[in-house]
């Protein structure tokens, strides 16, 4: 008997670990109050536990013209022109750029990653992912019928360039083309960011590799505006001025984090290439995907960004407001990392961003520690080879002493 659902959709099932764990954590907080720690959710909250929203963002949004800027159709599948210009000005702010670029609006960073997957590999081909990473990459690989190869993220405290090189070279030998994902800066879930030297080596290698076939690097920059380096963090993009025409970089940008406007579902793919033709192809194919999947993305999100970013005074207000929270995140991470070192809690190298990840070896150790933490009313998320702790959603008060309690779970 043929199934009603398509063969390729028979096994599809999203197991939402985060929301299931978050529900258990919220119940525990309701029952046990302050003793329970909810480190599950990847959203930024203030010291009182409230979701962070920026005044500059929502006062602008609530003043948009309902008929013209919210309710009416957007005129283009590619995205509103001003939005695409302003977001490129923003992501390339402070860098000397000589490459070609263009952008296509997408529903969130999720849409940017999904559309890129769809348009740069064919079904049956292999994609290179970090061995620890944002889970939807694997879901999208399945959706697009890719096989997955994984590079080890770390060699001790550093980015594991050797593992990346080895895996990418193997794929190039096999399929004559490589697409790899790098989530940087502020990698989810470890909070690692590559140094400029690491970027130099990575870009150098990918340029060399592109002599053998096309190379596409999907650089997921969802958390870029929470880097402790501020605008300086973009400096590595200048390396792309020297890319070969066979090496395309696509940035996945999202207003979910930049404006903490998760619900507005607005993002973009930004192509960077030294070839005009490659960029034109990028727009042509991704605009087509947009038309076939979501037509155009919510107009309000696009209008919101372009209104704020086109007026320096408003943009500065936003930057200042957000900077207060970047500092808060830094204080939280300083407390956690400092105490973790003192307690000898094993964790992956952290530089900046919303999360830290505890290091576990093997599924059974991970399960044991995860359960022990739960018994101590500490709710976290299991990731490949580790346990994610969302410091973005914990107040400094909750973080103090947490590393030592976690260490007990490792030792018991
Ligand atoms: N990339 C990473 C690593 C993320 O963690 C997220 C969201 O959590 C996204 C991309 C995309 O988010 P959104 O679709 O909300 O823009």
Automatic annotation (TrEMBL):
<dbReference type="GO" id="GO:0008483">
    <property type="term" value="F:transaminase activity"/>
</dbReference>
<dbReference type="InterPro" id="IPR015421">
    <property type="entry name" value="PyrdxlP-dep_Trfase_major"/>
</dbReference>
<dbReference type="InterPro" id="IPR000796">
    <property type="entry name" value="Asp_trans"/>
</dbReference>
<dbReference type="GO" id="GO:0042802">
    <property type="term" value="F:identical protein binding"/>
</dbReference>
<keyword id="KW-0032">Aminotransferase</keyword>
<keyword id="KW-0808">Transferase</keyword>
<dbReference type="GO" id="GO:0006520">
    <property type="term" value="P:amino acid metabolic process"/>
</dbReference>
<dbReference type="InterPro" id="IPR015424">
    <property type="entry name" value="PyrdxlP-dep_Trfase"/>
</dbReference>
<comment type="similarity">
    <text>Belongs to the class-I pyridoxal-phosphate-dependent aminotransferase family.</text>
</comment>
<dbReference type="InterPro" id="IPR004839">
    <property type="entry name" value="Aminotransferase_I/II_large"/>
</dbReference>
<keyword id="KW-0663">Pyridoxal phosphate</keyword>
<protein>
    <submittedName>
        <fullName>Aminotransferase</fullName>
    </submittedName>
</protein>
<feature type="domain" description="Aminotransferase class I/classII large">
    <location>
        <begin position="53"/>
        <end position="405"/>
    </location>
</feature>
<dbReference type="GO" id="GO:0030170">
    <property type="term" value="F:pyridoxal phosphate binding"/>
</dbReference>
<dbReference type="InterPro" id="IPR015422">
    <property type="entry name" value="PyrdxlP-dep_Trfase_small"/>
</dbReference>
<dbReference type="Pfam" id="PF00155">
    <property type="entry name" value="Aminotran_1_2"/>
</dbReference>
<comment type="subunit">
    <text>Homodimer.</text>
</comment>
């Amino acid at each position: 008997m043929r199934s009603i659902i398509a063969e390729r959709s028979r096994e599809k099932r999203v197991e939402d670990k985060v929301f299931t764990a978050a529900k258990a954590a919220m119940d525990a907080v309701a029952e046990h109050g302050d003793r329970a720690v909810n480190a599950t959710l990847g959203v930024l909250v203030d010291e009182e536990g409230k979701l962070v929203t920026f005044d500059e963002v929502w006062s602008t949004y609530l003043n948009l013209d309902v008929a013209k800027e919210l309710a009416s159709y957007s005129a283009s599948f590619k995205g509103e022109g001003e939005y695409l210009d302003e977001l490129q000005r923003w992501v390339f702010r402070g860098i000397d750029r000589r490459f070609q670029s263009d952008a296509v609006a997408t529903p969130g960073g999720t849409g940017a990653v999904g559309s890129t997957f769809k348009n740069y590999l064919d079904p049956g081909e292999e994609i290179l992912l970090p061995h620890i990473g944002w889970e939807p990459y694997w879901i999208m690989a399945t959706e697009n019928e890719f096989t997955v190869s994984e590079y080890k993220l770390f060699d001790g405290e550093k980015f594991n360039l050797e593992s990346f090189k080895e895996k990418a070279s193997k794929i190039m030998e096999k399929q004559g083309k490589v697409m790899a994902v790098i989530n940087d800066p502020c990698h989810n879930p470890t909070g690692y960011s590559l140094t400029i030297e690491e970027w130099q080596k990575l870009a150098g290698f990918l340029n060399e590799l592109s002599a053998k076939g096309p190379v596409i690097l999907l650089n997921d920059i969802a958390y870029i505006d929470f880097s402790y380096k501020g605008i300086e963090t973009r400096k590595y993009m200048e390396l792309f001025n020297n890319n070969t025409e066979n090496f395309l970089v696509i940035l996945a940008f999202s207003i979910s984090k930049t404006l903490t406007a998760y619900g507005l579902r607005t993002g973009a793919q930004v192509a960077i290439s030294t070839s005009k033709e490659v960029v034109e192809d990028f727009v042509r194919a991704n605009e087509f995907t947009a038309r076939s999947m979501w037509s155009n993305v919510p107009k309000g999100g696009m209008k919101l960004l372009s209104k704020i970013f086109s007026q320096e005074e408003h943009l500065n207000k936003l930057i200042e407001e957000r900077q207060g929270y970047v500092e808060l995140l830094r204080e939280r991470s300083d407390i956690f990392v400092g105490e973790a070192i003192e307690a000898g809690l094993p964790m992956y190298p952290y530089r900046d961003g919303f999360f830290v990840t505890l290091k576990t070896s093997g599924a059974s150790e991970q399960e044991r520690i995860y359960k022990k933490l739960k018994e101590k009313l500490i709710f976290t998320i299991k990731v490949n080879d580790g346990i994610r702790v969302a410091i973005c959603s914990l107040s400094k008060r909750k973080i103090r002493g947490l590393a030592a309690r976690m260490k007990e779970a490792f030792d018991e």
